Amino acid sequence: MNVLILGIVVFFGVHLVPISPLKKIIINRFGENKYRGLFSLIALAGLLIIIYGFSRTDFYSVWNPLSYSRQIALVLMPISIILLVAANVQTNIKRFIKHPMLVGIIIWSLVHLLANGDLRSILLFASFGTYALVDIIFSKKNLATNNSTNYTLTKDIAVVIIGLIVFAIIVYFHKYIAGVAIIL
């Protein structure tokens, strides 16, 4: 459990730097490229520690998930993945959701909290969801945007198709990624 918590602290500790005054101080001292490199290395180290810590942490049941929580996850996870894909493409989706990645992470964390009632899952998914909410609040990122640019529907359709393909890949490999097979 301690290793999982350490990974969470390292990963989210470094992710709080961009929304704090510390970012400018580090960039002024070391430069943009060194900041990005150091940020990436620390984030990767934190993520690897989280993965290792999660795999080594014992299962402690806190609650029994609802019988239909997995079905809710199967309905909402494609939306989460589509939003994660949309975060990297200029689409009409961004006209309505300013930061689709954070909204996608919130959906991802909520459905996983619904589907898992063990302590290690609660720590992992609640930390991701809490971070996304904190990032939205402190970055002054609104969920609605004033962008009036209309993009072609081709990009929106492509994002949805790519998101659904990524979702299908995740479902297929979920057993190997998370140790839990998803049965449709």
Short description:
The chain has helices at 2-16, 22-30, 32-56, 69-86, 93-96, 100-115, 119-138, 153-178. Helix 1 runs antiparallel to helix 3 (32-56), helix 2 packs across helix 3 and helix 6 runs antiparallel to helix 7 (119-138).
Keywords:
single chain; 184 residues; mainly alpha; 2 domains; 8 helices
Major sheet characteristics: none
The H-and-E topology, N to C, reads as: HHHHHHHH
Report the average pLDDT across residues: 90
End-to-end separation in angstroms reads: 31 Å
Low-confidence stretches: none
Total number of distinct structural domains: 2
Total count of strands: 0
What radius of gyration results from the CA coordinates?
Answer: 18 Å
Helical residue percent? Answer: over 70%
Number of helices: 8
Category by helix and strand content: mainly alpha
Strand content: under 5%
Gross morphology: globular
